[in-house]
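lol ok so funny story. i was supposed to be doing the assay writeup but got distracted and ended up predicting the structure for this chain instead. priorities right. anyway since i did it might as well share w the group, maybe its usefull for someone
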Amino acid sequence: MDVVVTGLGVLAPFGRGAARTFEALVARRSAIGPITHFDASAQRSRIAAEVRDLEAGNDLSAADLRTYDRFQLFALLAALDAVRDAGLGEGPLGDRAAVILGTGIGGLGTIERDCETLRGRGPRRVSPYFIPSAIPNLAASLVAMRFGARGVCLAPASACASGAHAIGEALWMLRAGRADLALAGGAEAAVTPLGVAGFGAMRALSERNDEPERASRPFDRGRDGFVIGEGAGVLVLETEAHAAARGARVRARLAGYGASGDAHHITQPDPEAAGMARAMALALEDARVAPAGVGYINAHATSTPLGDRLEAKAIRDVFGDRPPPVSSTKSALGHLLGAAGAVEAAIAVLALERGLLPPTLNQEDPDPQIELDVVPNEARPAAARHALSNAFGFGGTNASLLFARS
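and the output, tada:
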């Protein structure tokens, strides 16, 4: 059973709207700058790709803004945009509509604030909304409530692969006939004092604090870690029959999904990159597409020294000596953690639609150990028929999504 993409919703550091994000990428803009959400002067890494304006308009109430964690608000706004883009209206979607929205961490900002309340003012002053605002599944549940989607409601929590896993699991659910339509993706809001300090303590973040826009440099010899970001991405997926019955515009086909686990280390990828390669190979096999049929890869490539090199190895293991063009849009967007796979899936769909591959910024001194056709610094016209989007996470969790041009 074919599954199609009929709606895209993105809330990212460039603002609200999938097209807005894609156009900023093509224009070589960077969303990375000094942290403004809190005083970061004592942090190792003092830069991030922040959502500085929710641009909620009338879509969120004052009570919503007071009550829910930012990752939940991000998810609601991205889902609203995706549903509108799909032409669904906002009425009840019914029993055959699923919501699968992942997150890597969940309501970290809420946890930090209520811990301070507990220590400073005692347990009776902790908010009654603390648990609902902190737990990872509530973004999916709030979206389901907003749209009356009474089918399966799930929240994958697989680190930085969460959003991609959500989309892939929705694909399998639709193919299995367990739903006709799904809202799938991920949301994250971990640009908080503890989030930045935690990744900083692992020495995972770039410390190029004086040059924020040049800090994220995937595949470049000078890379020194990722730049944390935040946001949400939601795709509307439907069975082809359901989309056709309502006359929906098809933006792309979700042709394949591959998932694997490294079973190797809590943070470091398998040094042979076998799990990454297996996820990509399984996505191709699922779609019945040969490696030569892929015209673009939106790489996970976070700008870490080890991760980028191993992903490059995995790509060559799957695609051979002439892999397709590759870019990492984290060079401009930062790393959106559990939302990254969903936002980058939307970018891959737009790359197919527009025949334009977004660039990898800050490609000044390509790493000689990385033998890929990295799209450097300028967007590249290309009429790709298939695009692969990768997402890999701590714990050795891997997901690859393969989209086909409609």
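The chain has 13 helices and 15 strands. Residues 239 and 245 are 10 Å apart (CA to CA).
back to the writeup now i swear
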